[in-house]
Design goal:
Layout (H helix, E strand, L loop, with lengths): L1 H11 L9 H19 L25 H9 L5 H12 L4 H8 L3 H24 L1
Helix pairs in contact: 1-2, 4-5, 4-6, 5-6
Length: 131
Protein backbone atom coordinates (compact mmCIF):
# COMPACT_ATOMS: atom_id res chain seq x y z
CA UNK A 1 0.00 0.00 0.00
CA UNK A 2 2.79 2.44 0.91
CA UNK A 3 4.61 1.62 -2.31
CA UNK A 4 1.43 2.34 -4.28
CA UNK A 5 1.13 5.75 -2.63
CA UNK A 6 4.78 6.54 -3.31
CA UNK A 7 4.32 5.61 -6.98
CA UNK A 8 1.27 7.86 -7.25
CA UNK A 9 3.20 10.72 -5.63
CA UNK A 10 6.14 10.18 -7.99
CA UNK A 11 3.90 10.10 -11.07
CA UNK A 12 1.92 13.20 -10.09
CA UNK A 13 4.79 15.24 -8.66
CA UNK A 14 5.11 17.31 -11.83
CA UNK A 15 1.49 18.47 -11.39
CA UNK A 16 2.21 19.96 -7.94
CA UNK A 17 2.19 23.72 -8.49
CA UNK A 18 2.96 24.92 -4.96
CA UNK A 19 5.80 23.09 -3.17
CA UNK A 20 4.67 24.61 0.17
CA UNK A 21 1.61 22.35 0.19
CA UNK A 22 3.57 19.16 -0.56
CA UNK A 23 2.87 17.58 2.81
CA UNK A 24 -0.90 18.20 2.66
CA UNK A 25 -0.92 17.06 -0.97
CA UNK A 26 0.77 13.75 -0.05
CA UNK A 27 -1.62 13.25 2.89
CA UNK A 28 -4.56 13.74 0.55
CA UNK A 29 -3.18 11.18 -1.91
CA UNK A 30 -2.45 8.72 0.91
CA UNK A 31 -5.87 9.12 2.55
CA UNK A 32 -7.68 8.63 -0.76
CA UNK A 33 -5.62 5.51 -1.45
CA UNK A 34 -6.40 4.20 2.04
CA UNK A 35 -10.14 4.77 1.58
CA UNK A 36 -10.04 3.00 -1.79
CA UNK A 37 -8.17 0.09 -0.19
CA UNK A 38 -10.65 -0.18 2.69
CA UNK A 39 -13.60 -0.02 0.34
CA UNK A 40 -12.17 -2.82 -1.82
CA UNK A 41 -11.67 -5.03 1.22
CA UNK A 42 -15.19 -4.31 2.52
CA UNK A 43 -13.84 -2.79 5.70
CA UNK A 44 -15.79 0.36 4.97
CA UNK A 45 -19.37 -0.88 4.98
CA UNK A 46 -21.89 1.01 2.89
CA UNK A 47 -24.27 1.16 5.82
CA UNK A 48 -21.82 3.39 7.71
CA UNK A 49 -22.70 6.13 5.27
CA UNK A 50 -26.42 5.86 5.97
CA UNK A 51 -27.87 8.52 8.23
CA UNK A 52 -29.45 5.78 10.36
CA UNK A 53 -25.97 4.70 11.41
CA UNK A 54 -25.62 7.93 13.38
CA UNK A 55 -28.92 7.64 15.27
CA UNK A 56 -27.24 6.07 18.30
CA UNK A 57 -24.78 8.95 18.75
CA UNK A 58 -25.40 11.21 21.71
CA UNK A 59 -25.80 14.91 21.06
CA UNK A 60 -23.07 17.04 22.64
CA UNK A 61 -23.74 19.21 25.66
CA UNK A 62 -24.70 22.80 25.18
CA UNK A 63 -21.76 24.85 23.94
CA UNK A 64 -20.15 27.08 26.56
CA UNK A 65 -21.21 30.69 26.82
CA UNK A 66 -19.21 33.06 24.67
CA UNK A 67 -18.20 35.18 27.66
CA UNK A 68 -16.81 32.08 29.40
CA UNK A 69 -14.70 31.24 26.36
CA UNK A 70 -13.47 34.84 26.08
CA UNK A 71 -12.50 34.78 29.76
CA UNK A 72 -10.57 31.56 29.18
CA UNK A 73 -8.81 33.10 26.21
CA UNK A 74 -7.71 35.99 28.41
CA UNK A 75 -6.47 33.69 31.19
CA UNK A 76 -3.27 31.67 31.51
CA UNK A 77 -5.11 28.37 30.86
CA UNK A 78 -3.95 28.48 27.23
CA UNK A 79 -0.42 29.22 26.05
CA UNK A 80 0.08 32.59 24.34
CA UNK A 81 0.97 30.80 21.08
CA UNK A 82 -2.28 28.83 21.06
CA UNK A 83 -4.23 31.85 22.26
CA UNK A 84 -3.04 33.87 19.25
CA UNK A 85 -4.13 31.14 16.82
CA UNK A 86 -7.52 30.71 18.51
CA UNK A 87 -8.20 34.43 18.55
CA UNK A 88 -7.25 34.96 14.91
CA UNK A 89 -9.14 31.92 13.69
CA UNK A 90 -12.33 32.13 15.75
CA UNK A 91 -12.68 35.76 16.77
CA UNK A 92 -11.31 37.34 13.60
CA UNK A 93 -12.71 34.51 11.44
CA UNK A 94 -9.49 34.09 9.47
CA UNK A 95 -8.65 30.90 7.61
CA UNK A 96 -5.80 28.76 8.91
CA UNK A 97 -3.51 29.66 5.97
CA UNK A 98 -4.18 33.34 6.70
CA UNK A 99 -3.34 32.81 10.38
CA UNK A 100 -0.11 31.10 9.33
CA UNK A 101 0.80 34.03 7.09
CA UNK A 102 0.03 36.61 9.79
CA UNK A 103 2.01 34.80 12.48
CA UNK A 104 4.72 33.82 9.99
CA UNK A 105 4.67 30.16 11.02
CA UNK A 106 4.01 26.98 9.01
CA UNK A 107 0.42 25.86 8.52
CA UNK A 108 1.15 22.61 10.39
CA UNK A 109 2.25 24.64 13.42
CA UNK A 110 -0.98 26.64 13.26
CA UNK A 111 -2.99 23.42 13.20
CA UNK A 112 -1.13 21.91 16.15
CA UNK A 113 -1.46 25.12 18.21
CA UNK A 114 -5.16 25.20 17.38
CA UNK A 115 -5.50 21.59 18.48
CA UNK A 116 -3.61 22.17 21.74
CA UNK A 117 -5.62 25.30 22.48
CA UNK A 118 -8.97 23.61 21.85
CA UNK A 119 -7.91 20.64 23.94
CA UNK A 120 -6.94 22.92 26.84
CA UNK A 121 -10.27 24.76 26.55
CA UNK A 122 -12.23 21.49 26.57
CA UNK A 123 -10.36 20.15 29.59
CA UNK A 124 -10.87 23.35 31.54
CA UNK A 125 -14.57 23.58 30.63
CA UNK A 126 -15.12 19.91 31.53
CA UNK A 127 -13.45 20.46 34.91
CA UNK A 128 -15.71 23.44 35.58
CA UNK A 129 -18.83 21.45 34.63
CA UNK A 130 -17.85 18.60 36.95
CA UNK A 131 -17.38 20.87 39.94
Amino acid sequence: MLQDVLLIVYRKLQMLEEPEVFRAWVFRIASRAAFRHLKKRNRWPDRARDEDAFEHLVAPDQPPREDAVLALLASDVISPASRAVLALHFQEELSLPDVAAILEIPLGTVKSRLSYGLSALRKHLNRERNL
